[in-house]
Sequence to fold (162 residues):
Amino acid sequence: MSNEKARREAFERAAYNYYLERKAQGSLSPEGEGDGSIESLMWRQPNGQYGVLMFNAAWWGWNAALDAHRQQEDRKPVTGWVSTDDRMPDDGQEVLVCVNYSDGSGPHIMLDRWAMGREDPLGLGGPTIETGFTWDNNDPLDVTHWMPLPPAPDAAHGIKGE
Fold:
């Protein structure tokens, strides 16, 4: 299971359980709750955003909290391939990725960057919102592993400096 999918499933379970607790207390009734099932609350639009707005805000907060926690962990240097189920690169970090496409082709090794995605929610060229971390060039579900880039060669290896 990919990191993104696992995050979504954990978030949806936690958010739905919280919703049920609050509803039992009579203190919560989100717009568009439908029949109150997890499916009627956690449906997503084609752009991946949740249809019930309060869950979009909760999803962004969930990711921010997880990412902040991950950054505070004692992190040892990465020297080899890392599964995306175990850990993701730092924000904005360019890395080598191993990609297995859903059509069965792969593995392919390529350069990509893990960074916060941004989207114009109205599609009018206005302000953007953060939509969560993603790869610049690949679907998160297709990337299975990543590895930091090695250091660039230097003058000691026959590369002339400027």
The chain has two domains: 1-73, 78-152. DSSP finds three helices and five strands in the chain. The mean pLDDT is 78.
